[in-house]
Amino acid sequence: MAQSEQEILAGLAEIVNEETGLETDSVQPDKSFTEDLDIDSLSMMTIVVNAEEKFGVRIPDDEVKNLSTVKDAVSFIHSAQG
Amino acid sequence: MSTLTDRPTLTTATGAQYARLWGVGGYRPERVVMNAELVEAIDSSDQWIQERSGIVSRRYAAPDETVVDMAEHAAREAIEAAGITADSIGAVVMATVTHPYQTPAAAPILADRLGIRSAAFDIGAACAGYCHGIALAENMVRGGSAEFVLVIGVEKLSDFTDFHDRGTAFIFGDGAGAAVVGPSDTPGIGPTIWGSDGSNYDKIAQRDSWIEVKDSWTAVDEESIKFPAILMQGQPVFRWAVWGMAPVAQQALDAAGIKADDLDAFIPHQANMRIIDAMIKQLKLPSDIPVARDIAETANTSAASIPLATERMLREGQAPHGGLALQIGFGAGLVFAAQVIVLP
Predict the structure, then answer these.
(1) pTM of this structure
(2) Cα A29–A34–A36 angle (5° rounding)?
(3) Number of CB pairs < 8 Å for A and B?
(4) Minimum distance, in Å, between the CA of residue B51 and any CA atom of chain A
(5) What is the pLDDT of residues A25-77, one digit of tens each?
(6) Which of B130, B133, B160, B289 could hold B153 in an S-S bridge, CB 3.0 to 4.6 Å?
(7) Which residues of B touch A61 (CB under 8 A)?
């Protein structure tokens, strides 16, 4: 079932917290995964796979590089859930 | 055409009931290369490399040291550990992607160095090559085509590294590992779970084919000469290695009738410490089971990584002789192979 962008953001923040230990409050839409949250490529892949499972979507390898901000990821997951 | 019915019945080979590893050996080249030596060319730091890979240092072979030279050291150690003589070996199976000759293979040269004229051939299964070799050896011993099989994993990846590529310059190392597989009265090698996904052949690969670089070798200026280094797409490989390979490791346990709790060691291909850690998590491996972490001082030696890690765990007492170890190799192809073995 499709979730609201707010619900996806909250779920994504939990995944980021689990992988990196960052506070969930720090995972805001305008934050860049690499620049602001200091998430490297392998942690990003772990977050992607966990997000796929949590939100029931498929995020192809080629799409991952386009997800530079938290908002990019939330929007992609939201539209993938359709 | 009629079918002949009066031909004599063929005699076929018969082998041992079971096979096991009789001994392992390892060879680490002398020169230790710290991260500091590599960071300038990739605008990086020791800390960056360690965070992303867990690699502190690696060994590089000497310029004139070949994969056959390294393999010979490891092979002699494995043969001695097995307590056999080289003339008992019926086949030499060499797993390598860095023997720099398309032909002939490296294995016959090694066999000659060991003073034997057995069957000898190379297999191309990249970082999964050693586990493929163990699978073949197990089948050969049980099938009766050889009493003892020498399996070697050896790489001189420093010859095929692009030292300016941030994704791989620090990943690779050189070394050789070997195992002697022979007959056994009790089961010593579980069923192999193996397979491939050639649709992702480009995820870890030699950059150019030899045909593609052929013209550049007649180029007048040295700058335009291309060398086909081995490159890798880190993110998709990480996804495949962790979430694709953990179920394969589980299948190898199931096929052998072993629970994760029963293991005395987990020896995955030493690709990246982060892959190892994530795989442990996916497998829900109990925390008291010793895990091979040879990558810290050896880096990724492709086909050599599992036998080198095995040799270290036995030598340092991290894993017991006679214990059960789950080993899994995965790499360029993409290909993989996993099996549970009894440690020699």
Answers:
(1) 0.92
(2) 55
(3) 27
(4) 9
(5) 999 999 999 999 999 989 999 999 999 999 999 999 889 989 999 999 999 99
(6) B130
(7) 233, 235-236, 239
In this structure, what token pair is assigned to residue A70?
């938290």
B250: left (phi over 0), alpha (psi -120 to 50) or beta: alpha
pLDDT tier for residue A1 given thresholds of 50, 70 and 90: low
* Domains parsed from chain A with CATH numbers: 5-81 (1.10.1200.10)
Dig out the tokens for A54 from the structure.
């949590």
Q: How many helices (H) and strands (E) does chain B have?
A: 10, 13
* Chain A interface disruption, residue of B197, B232, B233, B243, most A CBs within 10 A: B243
Alpha helices in B179-304 (DSSP H): 210-214, 234-239, 245-256, 273-283, 295-298
Q: Which CATH number fits domain B193-205+228-342: 2.60.120.10, 3.40.47.10, 1.20.120.1220, 1.10.3720.10?
A: 3.40.47.10
Judged against a pLDDT cut of 90, whether residue B221 lies above it is answered with no
Q: Which CATH class is domain B18-184?
A: alpha beta
CB count within 10 Å of CB B86 equals 18
Q: Which of A40, A46, A61 sits opposite B236 (nearest CB)?
A: A61
> Does B344 sit behind a cis peptide bond, omega within 30 degrees of 0 on the bond before it?
no
DSSP string, B147-197: SEEEEEEEEEGGGG--TT-TTTTTTB-EEEEEEEEEEESS--BPPPEEEE-
pLDDT for position B258: 96
CA–CA gap between residue B156 and residue B158 (Å, rounded): 5
Nearest CB to A41 within list B235, B242, B243: B235
Residues of B involved in catalysis:
127, 269, 300
Mean pLDDT over the full length of chain B: 95
CA-nearest residue to B167 within chain A is A41
Task: Kindly indicate whether the ipTM for this predicted assembly is greater than 0.85, answering yes or no.
Answer: yes
Select the residue of A42, A48, A61 nearest B274 (Cβ to Cβ).
Answer: A42
